[in-house]
Design a protein that fits this description.
alpha+beta; 24 strands; five-stranded mixed β-sheet; Immunoglobulin-like; 429 residues; 28% strand; Sulfite Oxidase, Chain A, domain 2; six-stranded mixed β-sheet
């Protein structure tokens, strides 16, 4: 689905930073920059007086053997929504995307989704079996995997239900809760194709079925073509061992595809001639259409984006003047090539500045250097990927999918920012 708008967004990054600051001073009546200058002419005790932290020695190098965030950042944590599920053992929490910048998600902030709770398994206990339509059924220990050729790749993992509560209208107030079922990390592991080639896939083999060591097993079928392409059997994330909640010691990485297929505590890879049609791919993780048909095998996560600041959890409390509008964009079909931002609910668009070089099937950070006049805004972002797919409005999505779906909601999100800089989730389709 594509957005058929004929808007021609202007480039937000066309002017230099010097031009931006000069324009900011003029547009805001010089208030923001003048205020900064006025403060500089008044003695500031935080500069002119020696503070307690400069009067004594600080903590020793071994005070915290494993470094933790400073307590001033203790609000930057995962959060759940208690009424969303009956029990936290089979539930989900949300990445604080509103409080992060860049693209890499710290493991300690990365969202969790469990079907029967996170399990504790040592590397010594770990086993991975490959069987089914293979020439040589194999069992790997963790030590065996560490001897295999390994690769590194950055990829986002998004729950298929991310934004699912928003199908019928604005529900949850905060980017963390509307779009926080996502994280983006650098994974290191053995390509799945290496293990399958070691076992020798027989000609009849067309699908692999993967399941975990946990009580739910969370079995999913994956076409052999995808398994032999870019999937990783991973044991590191962001340079360190996987966290327990992310599948320690080994999980599967399926770039661009829904997070339910990224099986944690990976136990078995079975090669079959057809899909298994398990619970997680029949009664769950299918898209219910308006006519009652359940559409399955919708693995890829379509292009999507969200503004993380300003947003309900990050008000524009600084008042009128220069501000940075920022957010995240991603696509399971490849690289993000453009992100447009609207301040008036989709009437006019500017092209955002993309930070760095976009990576395929990974989060992309975007910025708009804006001068806010203090008037209300309806903030939206719209992602475009390298296939030409344009992120749709919610109305465009509902015209095809109806209102009863749970999964794969990639409609454009709107934040209403009022004169005080406070933001709320609203529906502008």
């Amino acid at each position: 689905m594509t957005d058929q708008s004929n808007d021609a967004p202007r480039k937000a990054g066309g002017a230099s930073r010097r031009d931006f600051l000069r324009t900011a001073g003029l547009a805001a009546g010089g208030a923001a920059l003048a205020a900064t200058g006025a403060r500089a002419n008044t003695p500031d005790p935080l500069i002119t007086e020696i503070q307690p932290y400069a009067s004594f020695t600080g903590e020793a190098v071994d005070a915290t053997p494993y470094g933790m965030p400073i307590h001033f950042e203790e609000h930057v944590v995962r959060r759940n929504v208690e009424w969303l599920t009956a029990d936290p053992i089979s539930s989900i929490n949300f990445t604080p995307i509103h409080a992060l910048d860049g693209t890499i998600t710290p493991q300690g902030c990365a969202f969790e989704r469990h079907h029967s709770g996170a399990i504790e398994m040592s590397k010594q206990e770990y086993r991975l079996m490959i069987n089914g339509l293979v020439d040589r059924p194999l069992v790997f220990t963790f030590a065996d995997l560490m001897r295999m050729p390994r690769e590194s790749r950055v990829a986002f993992c998004e729950c298929a239900a991310n934004s699912g509560m928003e199908w019928g209208g604005a529900q949850l107030n905060g980017a963390q809760f509307t779009h926080g079922m996502i994280h983006n990390m650098e994974y290191i592991g053995v390509p799945l194709r290496v293990l399958l080639e070691e076992a020798g896939v027989q000609p009849e083999g067309k699908w692999v079925y993967v399941e975990g060591h946990d009580a739910s097993s969370n079995g999913r079928s994956i076409p052999l073509e995808k398994a032999m392409d870019d999937c990783l059997v991973a044991f590191y994330a962001n340079g360190e061992a996987l966290r327990m909640e992310h599948g320690y010691p080994v999980r599967l990485i399926v770039p661009g595809w829904e997070g339910n297929m990224w099986v944690k505590w990976l136990r078995r890879i079975a090669v079959y001639h057809a899909a298994v049609e398990s619970r997680e791919e029949t009664s769950k993780y299918t898209d219910l259409l308006a006519n009652g048909t359940a559409r399955k095998w919708t693995w890829e996560m379509d292009a999507k984006s969200v503004i993380t600041a300003p947003s309900p959890q990050v008000p524009a409390s600084h008042g009128p003047g220069p501000m940075v509008i920022t957010g995240l964009a991603w696509s399971g079909r490849g690289k993000i090539t453009r992100v447009d931002v609207s301040m008036d609910g989709g009437v006019n668009w500017v092209e955002a500045r993309i930070a760095g070089e976009p990576q395929s099937m990974a989060l992309t950070r975007f910025y708009v250097d804006h001068v806010w006049d203090g008037k209300p805004m309806l903030l939206q972002s719209r992602a475009v990927d390298e296939t030409g797919y344009v992120q749709p409005t919610k109305d465009q999505l509902r015209a095809v999918r109806g209102l009863q779906s749970v999964y794969h909601n990639n409609g454009i999100q709107t934040w209403h920012v009022n004169e005080n800089g406070e933001a709320e989730n609203v529906e502008v389709s």
